[in-house]
């Protein structure tokens, strides 16, 4: 796991030339748009809902507003009335959910060794799987009139060294934004200078993009509820609710009392404490590493002065009133209103750096 | 149409660092692998055959040889025995056939004007369509154990100025080859410095890649038969067979007498004459511009000292003995044996530069 930006990143962060500011980077959690427990299955309903929400957030308008669909592929319902909302240069970054994980873990792509035929095959297979999902997301958003451009980190020439980002030029991403497009990236298999190849996760990509593009805020749309975290005066912190043993028993059940959780990062040291502590205390119930990486990367982003909102998009367990509530809360996060007005009843986690 | 490399290309052509030589660049004609007259329909049989042939050409072996399939997506027959042939750093470049043309021509993406909502939508729609085909080709080749990597010119940061290539860094393509992969590119919608956007055709990409990567030879797999071209002493040339008016009547019927056609380019002037003459005389029966561009680009490649073999892959009209023959002849071209041994009975067009 990366805890610090390496010098290459710190250098390049100062050189990106943006023709217009980026409002938001959205990380679509794989589990929120795919059926996590089914092999390569997209949750079409979730994908459609998130596409609709993103359009609403971008246009600041209602769902009934006319727009120009942009997926002119062999599907019903192409060519809607030409009416386009404004484009805000929003930036999407994706992880893969039930796509890519099997291929990557089966072949051990993250551990390198391209000279082994099985790793090489796994590298190819992983890229096929994650680009397949990315393609479907690009299409779903285009159908909502969002001018999406699929971009693979591998094709963009991004590479790592000892599994940390070594070269990740975002100039083409910036150019696409400058031309009014919404780039859609994804976690990818990439070349690594020290071990031939590895996996570059969507969370790490999100943090890198945030460092380079300096958006107003970052939203992580996730499927599992986050714990309430208490930060103490001395900078240490702990999970208050639900207790870890309870989470293990009940999965990730949500408590009606669980409202706004603001994780205030007060200084650089706190981030270090946070990262190492999270690894020890939360990893137990989070075998995919999702929670650990997410909080660590969110903390790194917050350290740059960029608010991070982690919000449930689609509750997997509770299906009643909370579903509507979660949808509403994610839309509020995407709309960017939380930065100026954080209502008491907003359900989600804010990671914010207070100097 | 481009007739000369611009200074940017000439410069970058000298700076590519290849860790191993490239044997061959293959241009899969869209019409050879898609159903040209049906909207976004892949010819699965052709795609499977061409994938098999490419594997045979790369391994130099028979079709029964065991290999490690690399498309581990939701399909039957994944995970074959781990046995991989050698990888020769072959390079593929694609055009789109029935993919992308509709979206591009409908919206006029090639003429620029991204500030118009309909052009912008067409840009997005074109990219969705061509990347969709590219993805399927990557998968088909991966199923044959070819370690393919899909790479979009747009994502690679390629751009044009006045519709000519302005910036097209192939270093990432070269790196992928150096790591033992077979990059698969495609004709793409790209950003243009002078008119916002345009279409970069597969033929132009092929020529650019040839100039940069300097392969031993280039193969164009096409679906329509090429005319017999006679080159005269003074460098002028004409189409001997079939006569142009007959081609208009009969489509592109093949004559049994049509064997090897070697177009010898003797000097720089000839190429200029060739380009301008072709535009006038052949364009009549070739509304897609395919023939004009192909011969012009092939001539540009030949000028670099690289043999170009244009060969029918799948006859669309004649379905009897010629089909098997064409398949056999395309395999011979892909295998690279034509460079040293050009048999009398080989059916196709060679474009070769004789100083």
From TrEMBL, chains A, B:
Taxonomic superkingdom: Eukaryota
- Which key words tag this protein in UniProt? ATP-binding, Isoprene biosynthesis, Kinase, Nucleotide-binding, Transferase
Q: What is its EC number?
A: 2.7.4.26
Identify the stretch annotated as signal peptide in this record. Answer: none
Look up the record and give one Gene Ontology term from the biological process aspect.
terpenoid biosynthetic process
State where substrate binds: 96, 101, 202
InterPro entries in the cross-refs: AceGlu_kinase-like_sf, Asp/Glu/Uridylate_kinase, Fosfomycin_R_FomA-type
Listed under catalytic activity are: isopentenyl phosphate + ATP = isopentenyl diphosphate + ADP
Q: Does the keyword Transferase apply?
A: yes
UniProt domain Aspartate/glutamate/uridylate kinase: residue ranges: 97-221
GO cellular-component term (any): cytosol
Q: Which GO terms describe its molecular function?
A: ATP binding; isopentenyl phosphate kinase activity; kinase activity
Instruction: Give yes or no: UniProt keyword Kinase.
Output: yes
Q: Where does ATP bind?
A: 97, 290, 294
Which residues does the UniProt site feature Transition state stabilizer point to?
36
Family, according to the entry, reads as follows:
Belongs to the isopentenyl phosphate kinase family.
Its name, as the record gives it, is: Isopentenyl phosphate kinase
């Amino acid at each position: 796991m990366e805890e610090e930006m390496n010098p290459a990143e710190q250098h390049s962060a100062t050189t990106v030339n943006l023709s217009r500011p980026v409002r938001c980077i959205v990380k679509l959690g794989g589990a929120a748009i795919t059926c996590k427990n089914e092999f390569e299955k997209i949750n079409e309903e979730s994908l459609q809902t998130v596409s609709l929400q993103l359009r609403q957030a971008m246009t600041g308008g209602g769902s009934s507003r006319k727009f120009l669909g942009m997926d002119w592929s062999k599907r019903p319902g192409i060519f809607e009335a030409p009416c386009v909302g404004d484009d805000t240069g929003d930036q999407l970054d994706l992880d893969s959910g039930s796509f890519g994980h099997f291929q990557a873990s089966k072949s051990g792509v993250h551990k390198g060794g391209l000279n082994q035929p099985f790793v090489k095959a796994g590298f190819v297979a992983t890229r096929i799987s994650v680009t397949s999902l990315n393609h479907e997301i690009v299409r779903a958003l285009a159908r909502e009139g969002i001018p999406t451009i699929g971009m693979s980190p591998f094709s963009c020439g991004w590479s790592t060294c000892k599994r940390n980002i070594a070269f990740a030029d975002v100039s083409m991403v910036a150019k696409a934004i400058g031309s009014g497009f919404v780039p859609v990236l994804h976690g990818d298999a990439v070349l690594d200078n020290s071990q031939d190849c590895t996996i570059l996760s969507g969370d790490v990509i999100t943090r890198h993009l945030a460092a380079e593009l300096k958006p107003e805020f970052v939203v992580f749309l996730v499927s599992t509820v986050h714990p309430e975290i208490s930060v103490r005066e001395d900078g240490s912190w702990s999970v208050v609710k639900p207790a870890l043993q309870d989470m293990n028993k009940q999965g990730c059940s949500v408590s009606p009392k669980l409202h706004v959780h603001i994780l205030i990062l007060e200084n650089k040291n706190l981030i270090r404490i946070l990262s190492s502590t999270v690894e020890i205390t939360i990893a137990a119930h989070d075998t995919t590493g999702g929670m650990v990486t997410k909080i660590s990367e969110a903390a790194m982003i917050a350290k740059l002065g960029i608010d991070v909102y982690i919000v449930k998009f689609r509750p997997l367990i509770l299906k009643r009133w909370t579903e509507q509530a979660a949808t509403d809360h994610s839309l509020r996060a995407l709309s960017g209103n939380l930065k100026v007005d954080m209502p008491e009843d907003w359900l989600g986690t804010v990671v914010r750096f207070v100097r």
